[in-house]
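Handout, tutorial session.
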Amino acid sequence: MKLIRLLVLFVALVVCISLAISNRETVAVGLEPLPFVINIPMFAVIFGAMFVGVIVGGFSMWWRDGSVRQRARREHRHADELERDLKKTQDELDHARDLARAANDRKALRGPEAA
């Protein structure tokens, strides 16, 4: 698995390097309402757009999965509550068994009762 990961990383690195080498020409980038223009290499525009896309996509996935995380937290709290209830019930059962054993031991020590 680690070898496959390294192979994919190497291929991605080769693609990025070849993209950067082949797109070194500068382009003018300006946002229409703003009065300035920046001259930067084309590969910086491509990588910047990819970076912004990854950030926006990650944020949208995080936002969309918020309800799933909320449900998981709620279910985790419920499971903790059920575990506490189970532990309390087991302790009560153990206490009741101890009382029953003690009562049986006292009855056995008294011997057979006269009929």
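The second record follows below. Compare its token runs with those of the first.
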Amino acid sequence: MAKIMVVDDAEFLRVRISKMLSGDGHEIVEAENGLRALELYKSAKPDLVLMDITMPEMDGLTALKEIRKFDPKAKVIMLTALGQESVVLEAIKSGARDFVVKPFDRDRVMNAVAKLLG
């Protein structure tokens, strides 16, 4: 299966998504903020990234842009809270391939992942 990086400052959400994806056979790498995600992306080379937008150290939008500079083909799905539509549009313009609104539905996450992994 795929190597997927889950990036969120909320540990319970990282764990929830990680369990969901590892239960489907994926290898999981976790990061608690955008800065750590950027470091890990370069060493772990994940096939896909699920990343929150609002985080300390470096927000998801900045991390997305930096990851895409490093790897223009990076597949990133943004995790967003309701009411962040303008930020989602900016993320899509910056190269995010999809977004999932929190609180998320398991099927929505799994479908987004499956779609991007082909």
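Points raised in discussion: The chain has one domain: 3-117.
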